[in-house]
Amino acid sequence: MENLPALSFLWPKMLWLLVLVPPLAFCYWRLDRLRRGMALRYPALDVVGASARPSRLRRVLPPLLLLLGLCSLIVAMARPQALMMLPSRLETVVLAMDMSGSMRADDIKPTRIYAAQRAAKEFVDGQPANVSVSVVAVAGAAAVVQSPTRKREDVIAAIERLEPQRGTALGSGLIIALATVLPTAGIDVERFLDGGSARPAPVDLAAAGLGDGAVPGSYPSGAIVLLSDGQNNTGPDALKAAEVAAAYGVRIFTVGIGTPEGTTLTTDGWSMRVRLDEDVLKKVADMTGAQYFQAQDAGELRKVYRSLSARLAFDKRDVVEVTALFTALGALLAVLSGLLSLWWFGRVQ
Q: Which residues of 247-275 are buried (b: 16+ CB within 10 A; e: fewer)?
């Protein structure tokens, strides 16, 4: 789909009719010259229909519009198709938020966690009314702090209650978020957290409405948004969780919060350097057919979430026949040409 041209045609041979347009334009030019020559040769005829000789614009514009309308109608005969972004069928978004101690860092003012919570609330407010939103808190362990709901006030309240804790188990957070997106898929979360596979016995994922298992990102009804600084230090590997999500066709959009150079964080008498680790976040997004975003300040983070909201609302690229559009454009240009001719000359040129 990504390699398809922006515009294609079902009947491309009809476009050969466009070669008739230049001869028609030439014929009109010759006819116009003959008409003006006759007017100069027989001045008495020039008073018929108009009291003054028409300007160049008035002579040229109506036939130009008519020729453009004819071109549009010929293109319509070739049945054009455009590659367009269509509204998604998204039903559930799970917001997985990193609540580890490193989110206390102040390289994003006033702190990473404050900026993340503020941007997340704006993101939730921007979701369509028919989309359910869930929140998963990710720290040393991960848990669903708000099950999927369309009540925005409940989701925002859950985000406001989040507090930084020790540890970062990104893999745990992602597998719990995946089980939240696909509650009927039989994902064995406990087995995955114990080091096993989260996949149940092989099933026909496409028949079950869970997307094509061979195509990451093919599941249209749900998505995961992970906000983190990327530093995973406990629990299962985040990339293994991404493999499971990819097998189910569920996209994991990742948002990196922080700066690559990081800052020194002092807490409980300990000092450590906390940096944004983009490598894992980029790999998770790539593996699941999604996209990675980076935010190095609070304003940038809000822009990321607005961009992500738009991406989730219109995330399907498909080929749509636009014959009617070109037909309407051709007819409009032809009618406009006729109206201008009647207005300026009292007849259709």
A: bbbbbbbbbbbbbeebeebeeeeeeeebb
Sequence-distant (6+) residues with CB within 8 A of 60 are: none
| pLDDT of 49 over the 60 cut | no
Positive or negative, the Cα torsion across 339, 341, 346, 348?
negative
Q: Which structural domains are found in the chain, ordered by start?
A: 7-83+320-345 (no CATH), 92-313 (3.40.50.410)
> Beta strand 263-267 with 270-274: parallel, antiparallel or unpaired?
antiparallel
Q: How far is CA 192 from the centre of its chain?
A: 32
CA atoms within 13 A on the CB side of 317: 11
**What are the helix (H) ranges across the chain?**
21-41, 56-77, 112-125, 152-161, 170-181, 189-193, 238-247, 278-287, 298-313, 323-345
Nearest to 217 by CA among 284, 137, 133: 284
Distance CA 191, CA 288 (A): 21
Mean pLDDT of the chain: 80
Q: Do β-strands 142-149 and 132-138 pair in parallel, antiparallel, or remain unpaired?
A: antiparallel
pLDDT bracket for residue 201 (50, 70, 90): very low
Q: What is the model's pLDDT at position 130? A: 85
Q: Name beta bridge partners: 274.
A: 263
DSSP assignment letter at 165: B
Task: Of 127, 290, 283, 280, give the one whose Cα is nearest residue 219.
Answer: 290
First to last CA, the chain: 46
- How are beta strands 80-86 and 316-321 bridged, if at all? antiparallel
Q: Give residues with Cβ within 8 angstroms of 290, minimum separation 6.
A: 217, 223, 251, 252, 253, 254, 284
Instruction: Report pLDDT digits (tens) over 229-240.
Output: 877 778 888 999
Q: What is the DSSP letter of 150?
A: S
Bridge-based pairing of strands 142-149 and 263-267 is unpaired
